[in-house]
Amino acid sequence: MPGLADRLNGIAISASAAMTDKASALKAEGHKIISLSAGEPDFPTPDHVIDAAFEAARNGATKYPPQDGTPALKAAVQRKFARENSLHYALDEILIGNGAKQIIYNAMMATLNPGDEVILPTPSWISYADGARICGANIVTVVCPAENEFRLAPEALSAAITPRTKWLILNFPNNPTGACCPEEDLRAIADIMLQNPHVWILTDDIYEHLIYDNATFQTIAQIEPRLKERVLTVNGVSKSYAMTGWRVGYCGGPRNLISAMNNMQGQTTSGINTLAQAAAIAALDGPQDYLLDRAKEYQQRRDFVIERLNGIPGMTCHTPQGAFYVYASVAGCLGRTSRAGHHIKTDTDFVTALLEEKLVATVQGTAYGLAPFIRISYATSLEVLAEGCERIKDFVLALT
Ligand code: PMP
């Protein structure tokens, strides 16, 4: 049989997608699954956003777009960065992609050579490491421990930088922990990066609007303008505006990097869906007040889940200030046996047995690089969360 490329060795379907697929298969068999594994808002895309896509289609926006994004969406992104982040990018310093995911992949493909190092504060979203590995780069993890609220300790970052470091990746609010980066941490990180001019910085701000307890969001190029020429500020409409299926992400960054990324993008796609770009303009330029209402609702769900999980002996859970995930330790459950006889040695055993026995889908922390934890997404209704927490409790209480 003809062979496959070596670059895919060790690259598997992401654990959260695998868990979602497994849960869907069980659902198709007629089981009532409680799905707490998917990283997407349960809210609908707002009506005015959907209307904009219809209108664009009727007005003939159905031809190939410019590969770097429509001028109108790039201008809306330019306004967004200025309004919300005090960042001023020229239009040729902005790129639109098929989701933040493609933006990040473009950046890696455009810059990484085999043997380069990418510093990844861990636990982290799965795709950073796999994207870097596809490019032949090595991952250098910097653990952000639960005892430090999953924050990135500046000293630990400093110790990880070598002459081969090409990128530092920042993602706060964080997937999978929900951790945020307080201003004092961000300033200390910025100081370290000022001393390391050979390193690019990618900040993935996709959870910017999902922030709680009156915390405020800041991004690194905003607080340290001297770094702006090395920072790629990545964002998208998926999480903030409940638009995961529309596939629109964007970034601002230095002109030479954006140009290289655009070159990369031009070889893999002829631009981004025109109707989705029209919809993204409506999202970015339209009313923003409902984002606060949604954040309030997420906060209520977070509090509910945290309280329930911390009431289960064997589980502990810190209170994150952002995103829509909690990262609960299952250390107290390891070495025990479930009612159906599964021996729980790892967090992967835990989530597998939980799905099989209680039909609750979560994701193992091992997939994000820090065990033994489980990631629970609370981007779902309080009723579903109540049922999910009850089943988790039954599962844990039955461990012997
Ligand atoms: N970054 C992070 C941290 C994410 O969690 C996700 C979605 N799971 C993405 C990027 C991808 O976003 P998009 O839908 O814009 O590709």
TrEMBL record:
* UniProt cross-references to Pfam families, sorted A to Z: Aminotran_1_2
Q: Name one GO biological process term.
A: amino acid metabolic process
Every Aminotransferase class I/classII large domain range: 32-392
Q: List the InterPro entries hit by this protein, alphabetically.
A: Aminotransferase_I/II_large, AspAT/PAT-like, NHTrfase_class1_PyrdxlP-BS, PyrdxlP-dep_Trfase, PyrdxlP-dep_Trfase_major, PyrdxlP-dep_Trfase_small
Record carries keyword Transferase: yes
For activity, the cofactor(s) needed are:
pyridoxal 5'-phosphate
Concerning SUPFAM superfamilies, the annotation shows: PLP-dependent transferases (SSF53383)
Would I find Membrane among this entry's keywords?
A: no
EC main class here is transferase
Q: Which domain of life is it from?
A: Bacteria
Q: What is its EC number?
A: 2.6.1.-
Q: Which CDD domains match?
A: AAT_like
Q: Which residues form a coiled coil?
A: none
- One of the record's GO molecular function terms: pyridoxal phosphate binding
PANTHER family recorded for this chain?
ASPARTATE AMINOTRANSFERASE
User: What family is this?
Assistant: Belongs to the class-I pyridoxal-phosphate-dependent aminotransferase family.
Oligomeric form and interacting partners: Homodimer.
| Protein name (record) | Aminotransferase
